[in-house]
Amino acid sequence: MSKNAISRRDILKYGAAISAAAATVGFPGIFGLGLARAADDDAATILNIAATAETFATTHYYRALEELDFSEGEKKYMLAAMESEFIHLSFLNANGGKALTEEFYFPQGTFADKKMLGTVTAVAETVFVAAYLAATRRFAELGSPLLSMVASQVAVVEGQHLLFMRGLAGNSPANNLALGDPLFYNVSDAVPVISGLLDGKSQVAGIDTETSAYKYPGADAVKKMLGGASYLEAPKPATDPATFPKM
Q1: Residue 19, in any domain of the structure
Q2: Which residues contact 45 (CB under 8 A, 6 or more apart)?
Q3: What is the spatial distance between Cα 220 and Cα 197, in angstroms, rounded to a whole number?
Q4: pLDDT tens per residue across span 191-235
Q5: Can you say how many angstroms the Cα of residue 148 is from the centroid of all Cα atoms in its chain?
Q6: How many domains does the chain have?
Q7: Which of 33, 19, 58 is nearest to 191 (CA)?
Q8: Helices vs. strands in the chain: H and E counts, helices first
Q9: Is residue 18 in a domain?
């Protein structure tokens, strides 16, 4: 069987394995994570890693919408999730962030069915929440309190995605956290965890990645999939002077 070939039995096996591991040791245990203490990130590093993550996330939701059938309510959620990740990416790009790559290697079977999608995406969103919490800490330390607030704003939304995806995967309760998991001290500490998505050379959450990369579809394709509609309220980043008119 080729690396990309995967049976439904394999999908169920992988999904069950991820869910069981998460239930036993939490998502950090899946990756063997401890609280890392590396050299502190500079602002450019944070922005570039975040832009890479948001490029992946936009691509992830775009591909899910292309390859899976959703109910009307689920589809609206997926479109809103894709739109929010695209807005995050646009903000990062406007503030100097640049994705390190636009091609990604997905874990095999990610888009086989909604349960597997939810299971794998919940792992990714756990990492994203933790990375933005680390960004919040570091931006504050760097003396950029408004960027720190934006990082917290994004972490809140990634937590919403995590909740929905846990529900899609069949986890109950889906809202199983009192606080977001602070897995990383620096944003760069997350890079080894997701390296397989970037180079296709290592497993992600115990699953081999596809041998062929899937490319970010681009802004025009994302906007076309949205069909000219917006599923979100107008973004209010803390860095926008209009957000705090009395400042």
Answers
A1: no
A2: 187, 188
A3: 23
A4: 999 999 999 998 888 899 999 999 999 999 999 999 999 999 999
A5: 18
A6: 1
A7: 33
A8: 7, 2
A9: no
**For residue 167, what is the domain's CATH number?**
1.20.1260
Residue 78 CA to its chain's centroid (Å) = 13
pTM of the predicted protein model: 0.86
DSSP letter string over 218-244? -HHHHHHHHTT---SPPP--TTSGGGS
Residue-number span of the structural domain to which 98 is assigned? 35-234
Asked whether residue 126 is domain-assigned, the answer is: yes
pLDDT digits (tens, 9 = 90+) for 59-94: 999 999 999 999 999 999 999 999 999 999 999 999
DSSP assignment string, 78-113: HHHHHHHHHHHHHHHHHTT---S-SEE-PBTTTTSS
| 23: in domain | no
User: Which tokens hold the place of 181?
Assistant: 């998991």
